[in-house]
Write a structure and sequence with these properties.
Shape: globular
Number of helices: 9
Number of domains: 1
CATH superfamily: Zn peptidases
CATH architecture: 3-Layer(aba) Sandwich
Helix content: 25-40%
CATH topology: Aminopeptidase
Bound molecules: zinc ion
Distance between the termini: 47 Å
Oligomer: single chain
Order of helices and strands: HHHHEEEEHEHEEHEHEH
Length: 315
């Protein structure tokens, strides 16, 4: 097949840019293709009734975790340390008992700056059944988990310049416990973690908007979000990171644990919807096409962030 001249121009431009960065400009600016069938299939698998909501410390949570570990093995990612599974015990807020959870953590080593890492994360737990109702948590957060699996697959094929750590956090619903355990006992020194990209509720594009949260507390992220070209149908807006209460999402998901350590983050998510934390957060409610394009947009953001981090001073 002949290359259209516009594509040829991009290839030439890509070669010219190769001295500044090992990632050609054309590859950097393209919106990655992911496996849409696998993305949706994983969302359905993780939010199936047999997973019973994947609440921390349940057998169904362990089943979801075993699947994530098997996928990391299948994709050929490496653990960070001895094992993909990183157990923790964390006290619950205002409760005497500790939560025993297990994060799943894997990495793709950077080709140019492997000693510096970007943590890309999503929590895989949700909440336990109540009154005989299963809370499937399709959007919250089978969506982010399945997207993270796709990002791991993508960056295993298209190697990043910095090391990407893929963190599937447990016990987010009990107070960001998996993420807090991760930063309290990090598998690499915190000073080596340049940034966090967190996904939590990325499938319900009911109004087409994917929020990119964190550019106010971390202005270093702003030009990267501004330069992002979203996939079709996805509108990326910045906000929900000033003010108080539920209008400020800075610490409402796992990115809060990184923010508390001064680590720049961008959190991607949709606005709360009628099925938020209801038994009706079901996979059938997901807008599959929008979800796919949201995941691709986030993959494109991680690609841009990986390039930008090279220009950041060490923390
Ligand atoms: Zn969530």
């Amino acid at each position: 097949m002949r290359l259209p001249s516009v594509l040829l121009a991009l290839v030439v431009a890509g070669c010219a840019g190769a001295q500044a960065s090992s990632t050609p400009a054309a590859a950097r600016d393209a919106i990655p293709a992911l496996d849409s069938a696998k993305l949706l299939g994983d969302l359905f698998r993780l939010s199936h009734d047999s997973m019973a909501g994947r609440a921390a410390m349940t057998p169904e949570n362990a089943k979801a975790r075993a699947y994530l570990v098997s996928e990391m093995r299948r994709l050929g990612l490496a653990p960070v340390g001895a094992s993909f599974e990183q157990p923790f015990a964390m006290p619950r807020r205002n409760r005497p008992d500790s939560v025993r959870g297990v994060n799943v953590v894997a990495q793709v080593r950077g080709t140019r700056f492997p000693e510096r890492a970007i943590v890309v994360s999503a929590h895989f737990d949700h909440v336990a059944p109540r009154n005989g109702n299963i809370y499937n948590g399709a959007d919250d957060n089978a969506s982010g988990t399945a997207a993270l699996l796709q990002l791991a697959a993508h960056f295993q094929r298209h190697k990043p310049e910095h090391t990407l750590i893929f963190a599937f956090f447990d016990a987010e619903e009990m107070g960001l416990l998996g993420a807090r355990a991760f930063v309290a006992n990090p598998p690499v020194p915190l000073a080596q973690i340049a940034a966090n990209v967190n996904m939590d509720m990325v499938a319900r594009g009911d109004n087409g908007t994917l929020w990119a949260v964190g550019t106010n507390p971390h202005p270093v992220m702003k030009p990267i979000v501004e330069a992002l070209v979203p996939a079709s149908g996805v509108t990326v807006k910045m906000g929900y990171d000033t003010g108080t209460g539920r209008d400020n999402w800075t610490s409402l998901s796992d990115q809060g644990a990184f923010h508390a350590q001064g680590i720049p983050f961008v959190y991607f998510g949709v606005e709360d919807h009628a099925d938020y934390h209801e038994p009706t957060d079901d996979p059938e409610k997901v807008n599959a096409g929008w979800y796919y394009n949201a995941a691709r947009t986030i993959a494109a953001f991680v690609t841009r962030l990986d390039v930008a981090v090279a220009g950041w001073p060490p923390r």
